[in-house]
C-alpha cells in the first residue's frame, strides 16, 4: 500500500475525477476527507470508501469561502490529527467566447478554480508545516497550457494554477512539502458529457492514443504524486492527455 495511514483531503471529490482519486487513495490505505458543495453525493462516495475499510469524513465545502475551508481543515485535525495530502480538484466551467463572456462567468470560474485552490493551500500548509511534510496536488488542465476558444476564464484559471503550483513548491520546499499539478486532456466525466458530439469527435481526432481518458488515468498520476515514489519531484505539471499536447 502506497498511502498507508495517510490522510487526504480531496475537494470536489463527490463525483468525477475527484471520486476516482478518493477511491484509489483509499485502496492504497489512505483515510479520505471529501469536501464538496454537494454533501449528499459526498456522503454516498464516502460510504463506498468505508466499504474498503478506510475512515472517511464527508463535509459540505464551497472552496471559494476561506473561513469555511479553515473550518473544514480544523474538523480534519480534530478527527485525524493531521492532513498529509491535499488534492485541489474542485472545478467548474462557464464557457463563452470572450466577447460574449460576462464578468460573472469570469469571476465564478476564477473563484472556484483558482482562488479555491489558494484558499485550500493556505489552510492546509499551516498543519503541514508543523508536520514537516505534505503533498499538494493541483488538478489543472491542458487548456491552461494551450488555451481554448470559449474558455478564457477556465484557461486563465488553470494557467494560474500551474504558476501557483511552482510558487508553492518553492515557498514550502524547505518544510518538506511538495506541490505538483496534473493537467488532464479530455477525460470522460459529467463535465465533458455535456459537450456536443462534433466537438468530441474533433477532439478525439487530435489525440494520438485515439481515445478519451478515464478518471482513473488522472487518479493513477495523482497516486504517484501523493506517494513517496515522487519524493524528489516538486513544482512540475504532468500532462495526462493521450499525447494531445507534447512539450
Ligand atoms: P465534475 O463536474 O464531474 O466534478 C466536479 C466536482 O466539484 C463536483 O462534485 C462539484 O459539485 C464539485 N464542485 C464544484 N464547485 C465546487 C466548489 N465551489 N467547492 C467544492 N466543490 C465544488 O468535474 P470533473 O471530475 O470532470 O473535473 C474535476 C477537475 O478536473 C476539475 O478541476 C476540472 O477542471 C479538471 N479537469 C477535467 C477535465 C475533464 O475532461 N473532465 C479535463 C481537464 C481538467 P457539484 O456536483 O455540486 O457541481
Task: Chart the SSEs and their pairings.
Elements: E1 7-11, H1 16-27, E2 31-36, H2 39-50, E3 56-60, H3 66-80, E4 85-88, H4 103-131, E5 134-139, H5 143-146, H6 152-172, E6 177-184, H7 190-193, H8 197-205, H9 215-226, E7 237-240
Parallel strand pairs: 1-2, 1-4, 2-3, 4-5, 5-6, 6-7
Helix pairs in contact: 1-9, 3-4, 4-6
The chain binds NADPH dihydro-nicotinamide-adenine-dinucleotide phosphate.
NADPH dihydro-nicotinamide-adenine-dinucleotide phosphate (NDP) binds next to α1, α4 and α7.
The outline comes out as globular
Q: Give the strand order of the largest sheet, numbering strands 1, 2, ... along the chain.
A: 3-2-1-4-5-6-7
| Number of discrete helical segments | 9
CATH superfamily: NAD(P)-binding Rossmann-like Domain
Number of separate structural domains: 1
Order of helices and strands: EHEHEHEHEHHEHHHE
Which structural class should the secondary elements be placed in?
alpha/beta
| Annotated CATH architecture | 3-Layer(aba) Sandwich
- What's the mean pLDDT score? 98
Number of strands: 7
CATH topology: Rossmann fold
Largest sheet features: 7 strands, parallel
Helix content: 40-55%
Termini separation: 32 Å
Low-confidence stretches: none
Distinct bound molecules: NADPH dihydro-nicotinamide-adenine-dinucleotide phosphate
Radius of gyration: 17 Å
State which percent range the strand residues make up.
15-25%
CATH class: Alpha Beta
Amino acid at each position: 500500500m502506497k498511502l498507508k495511514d495517510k490522510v487526504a483531503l480531496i475537494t470536489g471529490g463527490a463525483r468525477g475525477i475527484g471520486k476516482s482519486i478518493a477511491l484509489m487513495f483509499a485502496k492504497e490505505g489512505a483515510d479520505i476527507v471529501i469536501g464538496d458543495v454537494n454533501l449528499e453525493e459526498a456522503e454516498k462516495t464516502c460510504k463506498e470508501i468505508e466499504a474498503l475499510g478506510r475512515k472517511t469524513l464527508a463535509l459540505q465545502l464551497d472552496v471559494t469561502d476561506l473561513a469555511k475551508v479553515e473550518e473544514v481543515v480544523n474538523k480534519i485535525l480534530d478527527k485525524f490529527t493531521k492532513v498529509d495530502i491535499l488534492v485541489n480538484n474542485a472545478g467548474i466551467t462557464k464557457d463563452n467566447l470572450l466577447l460574449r463572456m460576462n464578468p460573472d462567468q469570469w469571476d465564478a470560474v476564477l473563484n472556484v478554480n483558482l482562488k479555491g485552490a489558494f484558499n485550500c493551500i493556505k489552510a492546509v500548509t499551516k498543519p503541514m508545516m508543523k508536520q514537516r511534510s505534505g503533498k499538494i496536488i493541483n488538478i489543472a488542465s491542458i487548456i491552461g497550457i494551450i488555451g481554448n476558444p470559449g474558455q478564457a476564464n477556465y484557461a486563465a484559471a488553470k494557467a494560474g494554477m500551474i504558476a501557483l503550483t511552482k510558487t508553492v513548491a518553492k515557498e514550502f520546499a524547505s518544510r518538506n512539502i511538495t506541490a505538483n499539478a496534473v493537467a488532464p486532456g479530455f477525460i470522460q466525466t459529467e463535465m465533458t458529457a455535456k459537450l456536443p458530439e462534433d466537438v468530441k469527435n474533433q477532439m478525439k481526432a487530435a489525440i494520438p492514443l485515439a481515445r478519451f481518458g478515464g478518471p482513473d488515468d488522472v487518479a493513477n498520476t495523482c497516486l504517484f504524486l501523493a506517494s513517496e515514489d515522487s519524493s524528489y519531484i516538486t513544482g512540475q505539471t504532468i500532462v495526462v492527455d493521450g499525447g494531445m499536447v507534447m512539450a
